[in-house]
Amino acid sequence: MLAISGKLIHRLTLYHGILTYTLCGQEYVSSNEIATLLKIDDSQVRKDIALCGVQGLPKHGYKVLALKKSIEQKLSFNKQKDIFVIGAGHLATALTQYADFKAYGINILALFDNYESKIGQMINGKRVFDINRLENLIGRMKIDTVILALPPQNAQEVTNRLVKSGIKFIWNFTPCIIEVPDEVVVCYENIVSGFLQLIL
């Protein structure tokens, strides 16, 4: 399968959200309806939907359920991805509470921390393990993806351990740039940046 661009993934997830929540119970949807809701060009929506292999019906548009299912297949929502969360603070706790992760194929198996008071606790059904068990459990459970949600001063040190353990994908919620080999993919999630783009 050809690689999907980040921009296309972003738009398709927005379409999926509209189909799942905004248009819940509606049988058909037009590309113009989606474009109007997102304030983007109608032709872009049609191109994106065409990539999902869905054809519309004249005067009706696209079947909502069929389009939703096609997007889920395109983005591999049906393939479960087991991941670890590095850190067990407030942000990590909030991430484990996000119920929609399951719907998108994201399965958080466990959290890791170095604070003794947190080790062994259950956070929203996920156990917190000692960070010193990280390498062993990555290997045993064949994990290649993690969420980094720990203090920035520890980010690079832990990243080095993750890379040596075979981690290939890092979703980085820390406010710092981490150095990784070319073969490791890092996605930076900056909550403050998103807010500032909204108000400035």
Summarize the structure.
With 200 residues, this protein is α/β, with parallel strands linked by helices. It is built from nine helices and nine strands.
Please tell me about this protein's structure.
This protein has 200 residues and is an alpha/beta fold. The chain folds into 2 domains: 6-74, Orthogonal Bundle (Arc Repressor Mutant, subunit A); 81-197, Rossmann fold (3-Layer(aba) Sandwich), CATH 3.40.50.720. It contains 9 helices and 9 strands. The chain has helices at residues 6-22, 31-38, 42-51, 64-74, 90-96, 100-103, 134-141, 155-164, 191-199; strands at residues 28-29, 62-63, 81-86, 106-113, 122-123, 126-130, 145-148, 169-172, 185-188. The strands form 2 sheets. It has a 7-stranded mixed β-sheet with strand order 5-6-4-3-7-8-9. Strands 1-2 form a two-stranded antiparallel ribbon. The mean pLDDT is 94.
How are the SSEs placed, and which strands pair?
Layout: H1 6-22, E1 28-29, H2 31-38, H3 42-51, E2 62-63, H4 64-74, E3 81-86, H5 90-96, H6 100-103, E4 106-113, E5 122-123, E6 126-130, H7 134-141, E7 145-148, H8 155-164, E8 169-172, E9 185-188, H9 191-199
Parallel strand pairs: 3-4, 3-7, 4-6, 7-8, 8-9
Antiparallel strand pairs: 1-2, 5-6
